[in-house]
Amino acid sequence: MRNLRRPALPGRTVRLRFTALYGVLFLLSGIGLLALTNLVALGSSRVTVPGENPQQPTLAASQELVGRLQAQLSETHTAQSRQLLIGSAVALAVMAVVSVVLGRVVAGRVLRPLRTITSATRRISADNLHERLAVPGPADEVKDLADTIDGLLERLEGSFSAQRRFVANASHELRTPLATIRASLDVAVAKPEPVPAQTIALADRIRTELDQVDRLLEGFLLLARTQHGALSDRATISLGRVVSAALDSRAADIAARSLTVHGDDVQDGAWTRGSRTLLSRMVGNVIDNAITHNHDGGWIRVAATADGATARLIVETGGRVLDQEQIARLAQPFQRLGADRTGSDSGSGLGLSIVAAVATAHGGDLDLRARPGGGLRVAITLPLADARAGVPA
């Protein structure tokens, strides 16, 4: 990996530029202050000598003239001091305003590269880590900061690429041993000679555990692919239709637990854009969670609506009153409320974490709330899309 950091040249640092700019500003402010003060102070500095008789003045007249001149000089000095004070105050106020305006303009020009770096960094996410800041300019602290961030982005891009390769390879490498074990069990049980009952019971138990491991592995790989992969099969999808399909495919499970589904508020106008596979899995996980963590004879309320620029999916279930602090942790992997919630300890703890990851990957959000009357409220918000932008799903 190339080293993007370059030592800043001592003569072209941001600190030196700030020092020079503010030094020039203060110098110009001082010059302007002195100029205004002198212009105001010199406005009335003329002393008027009263006219005298052209005849030879006497000694008494001369002394009287000297006294009048001294009094007039004292008054003139006092007036000039007052005028100087007023002029200084006016000049100080004017230059203070000018200095603030100039300082703001200069600071904006100096900090413009930092604003460029900030806005460019905010635009870069996991989907476009290949982009770089590439800030032009002298080799100073700002350039060194931009190059350091570019180096960090390059390292992050390498890490994300390694994670994507791991997800792609793990799907094959980890499923192969499971398939081999399952095939070996089938061969052992299918032998012509009588198989002991204990062996058949053990094989059934191992198959059950293998199915659980397979579901756990599938959920883990889907979670990793959602968090660190790219959405390749984007399309414009009707959230209401995905919900209806999920409910139809789980009709047998719903009937087995005698659950009542209220889905009158499932609208066909709630469209969003994203991966059809991931969004279907997201909706399926929410419905599965509502079926599994429910009591026999309970109810499920489903709503898919469009509100402004948002498509919203809300799934509510009844039950006992839950702790909101524990509910907030359900979006994290391998977090469950336990068997005391429904009398069942089934599930891998990845269902709602996959829902949260899929919603985040599509620019949405997952909100989990404990209902005051008991049960859970799951709300998913996604960006609303125009139904005419793609092929309906």
TrEMBL record:
- Which PROSITE patterns does this chain map to? HAMP, HIS_KIN
The UniProt keyword set, sorted, is: Kinase, Membrane, Phosphoprotein, Transferase, Transmembrane, Transmembrane helix, Two-component regulatory system
Q: Where in the cell is it found?
A: Cell membrane
EC no. given is: 2.7.13.3
Q: Annotated Gene Ontology MF terms?
A: phosphorelay sensor kinase activity
Catalytic activity as recorded in UniProt: ATP + protein L-histidine = ADP + protein N-phospho-L-histidine
Q: What is its main location?
A: membrane
Q: Name one GO cellular component term.
A: plasma membrane
Q: Which SUPFAM superfamilies match?
A: ATPase domain of HSP90 chaperone/DNA topoisomerase II/histidine kinase, HAMP domain-like, Homodimeric domain of signal transducing histidine kinase
* Cited Gene3D superfamilies: 1.10.287.130, 6.10.340.10, Histidine kinase-like ATPase, C-terminal domain (3.30.565.10)
Q: Which residues form the HAMP domain?
A: 108-161
Q: Does the keyword Transmembrane apply?
A: yes
**Which residue ranges does UniProt annotate as crossing the membrane?**
20-41, 84-107
Q: Where is the Histidine kinase domain?
A: 169-386
| Protein name, entry field | histidine kinase
Originating species:
Streptosporangium subroseum
